[in-house]
Amino acid sequence: MATKTVQLLLTDNVDNLGIVGDVVTVRLGFARNYLLPRQLATTPSKEKLTELADRRAEAEKEQAALLEHRRSMVSKMEGLELTILRSCNDLGHLYGSVTQQDVADALGEKGFVVKSREVRLPFTIKRIDNFDVLIKFAKDLEANIKLHVEPDRTLDDDGRDEMEFDDEGELIDPSLKNKRPAPEAAAATGDGEAGTTEAAPAAE
Fold it and tell me: What domains are there in the chain, each with its CATH number?
């Protein structure tokens, strides 16, 4: 069955939906449970559109100023290197992951106003390392930054040299590696082609 929708007139700005004065089509549940109870929208009418005209004009000015601000911020943010300190074990595995909000907060400390949903992490960050992170405000407004996740203490260099991670950023347990027998071992036990010999035929 098709999802029921309703057309409403926004009486205030709503993130990811529109600005005051926009006529939008939304799901009925979203309208009943969120927009209407919070008086963010109403039934469209010519009278209401006229009433909201001045507020819409002001909202358009604010949106234009915000767009210009974000363009300037993106140009300054591109290539930025950001460092976050985290507690971890001797192998560099974090006790807690680095979240989108953590990155947004760190950017905020440098003067960049970024919402957590605008931070696009490549995967859950759970280790000490360097990561490429995308900050995306809109389709044509994005910046790439370098995130350095560093330990909050000095780690054992020998332990860190042994760290290996898979494509998803998960720490590979060294004890699970190289479980297959070495070629020499296979030959010694007769396993594999290298260790297989045929008995000479008996003389007649």
Answer: 5-69 (3.40.5.10), 78-176 (3.10.430.100)
